[in-house]
Design a protein that fits this description.
191 residues; alpha+beta; three-stranded antiparallel beta sheet; 10 strands
Length: 191
């Protein structure tokens, strides 16, 4: 007799983790229907709710999600735990053809380096929105290192402004703000 264990849907696991960490309902009102696959250098794959040390995730990741190749999408990455209780924008790309983020329009350069003053755990959330058409964004490009605009960002206001609706896919991890001073990090800081 062959016994098999029931396979739990990855989306069910994602939603459970989103609720456990209060991303639903603090940020998301609706459950996403897909998981965003996120891969950082050194083979670091993001599973919903995994805890990572921040300097493992300072470099640009590879992002994939289920997408229609002839439609456009917006990718948003947020830190939900920037004091005082507000979100901060890490990365924003719009007009992504299918899931080819590299061909999208960067509205905020990827920047996951923040002050070492914060020593708590931060929830870093990836959201993918399906656009109804190619959009004419009137946002000023936010370069790497610029903080003021990132800390004033409101994802709900942005989504309403461009009629993005609810995200179709999500993922998140917990970032531990405990720096490990690696030779690669020290070299990057000296550049």
């Amino acid at each position: 007799m062959l016994v098999t264990c029931p396979v739990v849907s990855p989306v069910i696991k994602l939603v459970a983790e989103l609720k456990k960490h209060k991303i639903i309902p603090e940020l998301l009102a609706c459950k996403p229907t897909e998981i965003i696959n996120v891969q950082y250098p050194c083979d670091i794959s993001i599973k919903p709710g995994v805890t990572l040390v921040i300097n493992d995730v300072v470099n640009l990741p590879i992002v994939r999600y289920k997408a229609d190749p002839v439609r456009f999408y917006t990718l948003m990455v947020l830190d939900l735990d920037v004091p005082p209780e507000r979100e901060s924008l890490i990365w924003l790309v719009g007009n992504i053809p299918g899931c080819d983020v590299n061909r999208g329009q960067t509205l905020a350069a990827y920047d996951n380096r923040r002050s070492m003053e914060s020593r708590s755990i931060h929830r870093i959330v990836f959201l993918a929105f399906k656009q109804y058409l190619k959009l004419d964004f009137d946002e000023v490009l936010i370069p790497e290192g610029e903080r003021a605009s990132r800390n004033k960002f409101d994802c709900h206001r942005f989504a309403r402004k461009y009629a993005l609706g609810n995200p179709i896919a999500a993922n998140f991890f917990l970032a531990e703000w405990q720096w490990r001073w690696t030779p690669q990090f020290i070299a990057a800081e000296m550049e």
